[in-house]
Input
Amino acid sequence: MGMAAAVAMLATPTLAHDPEAQDMEITRKAERETVEGPEEYFTGTARITANFSRPDPSRVTGAIVEFEPGARTAWHSHPLGQTLVVTEGVGWTQVENGPKYEFYEGDIMWCPPDRKHWHGATPTDSMTHVVVQERLDGENVTWMEKVTDEEYLAGEPITGPVQD
Output
């Protein structure tokens, strides 16, 4: 899959869906496509699997994203916020001008609407999360500049509970 197709898939994820179906819809593991995270939006190696988008009136979109050690997203925001469910490994996240937090397998994170942030693996550990967010006016993410190595490595992460 080319870069343009991967970027389009990340911005407006879809899997086959029959809006007339009356039964449960199951997408089997063998049917899910995996693509490399576009270099424009990721530093290091990230893989995106099971990208999905539900039909109106639902606004839900999501995917499974795997980060190799040192990989991370670019700065970005979500118009209606974002939930991350960490399924493997150890990662870091940071909201602009805020502290960097370390998170672990089993943690669930919420980033409020329109908050500029990034997330990814630590320099020594990989990390996988399920991401869920909603579309607003057809958009679920606004991508910004890449997180520099200096930003990524700055300061020690907070490993305890997140404080408001």
About this structure: The longest helix spans residues 3-11.
